[in-house]
Amino acid sequence: MSSTKPTSAQPVVPDWRTVLGFTEPSEIDWGRVRAAQINVGRRLAPARLVVNLVGVAAVVVMLRGLAPSALLYGWGGLCTVFAILMAHGQSRNRGWQVQTITRGELHRETLWSTLTAVSWGAAPLMFSRYCNSADLLMIWALCTTLIASSAIGLSALPLATGSYIVVMAASLALAMWSIGLVWVAAVAALFGGIMTLACLAAGRTFVVHASAGLALAEKNEVVSLLLREFDDSGGDWMWQTDASKCLTHVSPRFAFALGMDTEMLDTKPLLQILAGNAWEAGNFSAGLRELAERLKMRESFSDLILPVTIGTEIHWWELSASPRFDDRGSFLGFRGVGSDVTAQRRSADKINHMARFDTLTGLPNRLQVTEALGEAMSEADRWRSKCAFMMIDLDRFKAINDTLGHPIGDRLLTRVAERLRGLMTDKELCGRLGGDEFGVVVRDASDPARLNRIAREIIEALSKPYEVDQHTLYIGASVGTAIGPRDGRTVEMLIRSADLALYRSKDQGGGAHNAYEPQLHVHAEERRVLEIALRKALERNEFTVHYQPVVSAEGGIIESFEALLRWNNPDLGNVSPARFVPVAEDARLIGPIGEWVLRTACQEAMRWPDHIRIAVNVSAEQLGQPGFVTSVISAMSHSRLPAHRLELEVTESVFMREGTGAVAVLDQLLALGVRLALDDFGTGYSSLGYLSKTKFNTIKIDRSFVQGASKNAPEALAIIRAVVAMADSLGMATTAEGVETEQELAIIRKLGCRKIQGYLFGRPMPAPEARRLFDVDRAVA
Fold it and tell me: Residue 18 and residue 31: Cα distance in Å, rounded?
């Protein structure tokens, strides 16, 4: 039986080598198990000594005058010495229990037991020839009694006791055989074998119980420590100063939070304690300066947050206090409370970090890139210089993503990010804009040759082969560059110019770099063709709506469907929403198209069971149209769909547009009973302020966080926990998007998300397939 790692459902089951002390697996502290074995022997040491001395005395008295005196007394003296030495070694520290021992110490016990067995086993071999039947029976009885008592009382030491029994039984059997008692010798050997097996079995049981008890004790200790840590960090502690700002009556929990004794803190200045090593240098934090000012002015304060260095780690404390005065109005000092808010602070920092950095690649996200470009344009305008923006799009990436799957595609994007990061200097900032699109802000673009060199280095670096999960992948890169302020006076214009230049590079087959030129019309022509086709698509019934199920995290029961628009044009084929939706928005066609999707989805939802909702995506342009709320009312009225079965999904971009009145529109929808969902939370311009503007029913967690959590990325786990906790506290549900594997499902369930959406439970499907999931096809009345 092999050693296995213990889990909550599987106890420690050691093999025989471990039981006998020859190996020590790493699951638990086996030194403590060995100590438990030794302690059994120590408790029985006095009894063993008495038994041995009485037995020796009995043999000596019985054989005195029969066996040679020198032989008899020499044997008795040797046995007595061994018994006393072994008892002394075991009983020298009887006042306390051994906590841990090594295998060497355990084997020394085996050596002493073997030596004792040899000394006692010599008795029947040496004295059987001098004995009569009664004496021989007495020696037999003594030896079998010692064997049985050892097997029963000292089985906790299986190797030592087993060795003792084997030597004793072998000596007794050999002695009986030597004087012709063959059957008696056989009985002695059989008895010794039975006692040995019983001892080993009992010893193994003792080791199993001891190791299991130790594992349980360790778990209880960990739980106690965690509970104590939670209690200490979660509750407030008291502090108090006298009129000279020195601490008095220091709370034990306050002292514990500082990692100091209460005696060390009493009468010490509060500001000096909180400043730590910075006290002598006078390099105080802003929070500590504000605290000093409040103490000086004797003003009450609350929720004052300041950093406190404890050891080598910075903690964040939140302090509140009020001044104390006696009956005559004399100032006595301050009394207040404090708490450690380090965890909350770090969680907030992680959320802010995730709002500015891409979860998958670790590069700055679109928000930070646009901010950096705005700063570069301001500097260029101030110093009459130039800056530049480069748009990078990966060639052939979609084919790899579609054929090998998203996990391979994501790992490929991380490798691309690593190469881009290695090319950047302190004059450039590279970020991920979304998907397989990256951007580079060049702060100094006065040298056109340098821009061309950077672009060529990017293309060459990204075009080298990649080794990803035993796949050799070949992609390329296309780059478009726009120079500010020549090619755009605003951030949006400069990015658009770079995007137009990028389209030319893509149209050239990829692997190319183009700078923006005013006469660029390739991209504009494509958009014009799409716009013309879009204007005819509705009347030609080229649009269809597919539906992807959203299920409950517990049980996988379908709760709703998300409506997803698809376009199949006779000339252009299947056109991706990523291509035609931006064109529809720019051409102001998103209104009628969105209204058709909403009306179609509501009608289809009436064919489903009454508890199934329909979710429809709404763009910022739709919310900005004056008749949007009216179109929602009309769609529900004509389909007879109850308002609570309709959920509208919006992205954070709706809050980025000035003057659209998005919040007011959303409030009107909520008043109608329509549900709202915040889609792709955390991927772009995430801000908790959006959640205070509008009462959302659902927060949808982007797939990138789900993937990060499945890889045990601490940041992704922290963000999902924070979002789930925040949503629960605000009465909102959470939906995890893009769940594709059982592993992702398990971690999302563990983190507390209520709903799941992804290929694991269903791809977007036509309406008849969605209906077949319920085996219901009810006609709309």
Answer: 12
Q: DSSP label at 773? A: T
> C-alpha distances in angstroms, 36 versus 42, 207, 288, 370, 427?
10, 9, 53, 66, 66
DSSP per-residue string spanning 431-464: EEEETTEEEEEES----HHHHHHHHHHHHHHHHS
SS3 503: helix
198 CB burial (10 A radius; 0-12, 13-18, 19+): middle
Rounded Cα gap, residues 197 and 193, in angstroms:
6
Contact 266, 248 (CB under 8 A): yes
Q: CA gyration radius for the chain? A: 41
For residues 80 and 8, the answer to whether their CB atoms sit within 8 Å is no
Structure tokens at 718: 């922290």
Alpha-carbon span 71 to 60, nearest angstrom: 10
| Contact by Cβ (8 Å): 682, 702 | yes
- The four Cα atoms 552, 556, 557, 561 give a dihedral, to 10 degrees, of 70
pLDDT in tens, 448-484: 999 999 999 999 999 999 999 888 999 999 999 999 9
Helical spans, DSSP H, in 538-576? none
**pTM confidence score:** 0.40
Q: What share of the chain is helix, strand, coil (3-state, %, to 5)?
A: 55, 20, 25
User: CA 81 to CA 422: how far, in whole Å?
Assistant: 77
SS3 of 522, please? helix
Find how far residue 479's CA is from the centre of its chain. Answer: 37
- Cis peptide, bond prior to residue 485, ω within 30 of zero: yes
The residues near 489 (Cβ < 8 Å, ≥ 6 apart) are none
More confident residue, 354 or 379: 379
In the block, residue with structure tokens 């508890």: 611
3-class state of residue 325 by DSSP: strand
Measured distance CA(387)–CA(378) in Å, rounded: 9
H or E element in which residue 279 lies: helix 278-281
Cα 279 to Cα 606: distance, rounded to the nearest angstrom? 71
* CA separation, residue 349 to residues 356, 521, 715 (Å): 11, 44, 10
Put the strands of the sheet holding 331-340 in their side by side order: 237-240, 331-340, 313-325, 301-310
Instruction: Give 67's contacts (C-beta < 8 A, 6+ positions apart).
Output: 126, 127, 130
What one-letter code names the amino acid at 141? A
Encode burial over 74-87: b for 16+ CB neighbours within 10 A, e otherwise.
ebbebbbebbeebb
DSSP character string of 638-676 = HHT--GGGEEEEEEGGGGSSTT--HHHHHHHHHHHT-EE
What torsion, rounded to 10 degrees, do the Cα atoms 32, 34, 35, 40 define?
140
pLDDT tens digits along 162-216: 787 888 888 888 878 878 788 878 887 888 788 888 888 877 887 788 777 776 6
Are 648 and 674 in contact by the 8 Å Cβ rule? The answer is: yes
Residue 573 is inside which H or E element, if any?
strand 573-575
Which H helix or E strand runs over 113?
helix 103-127
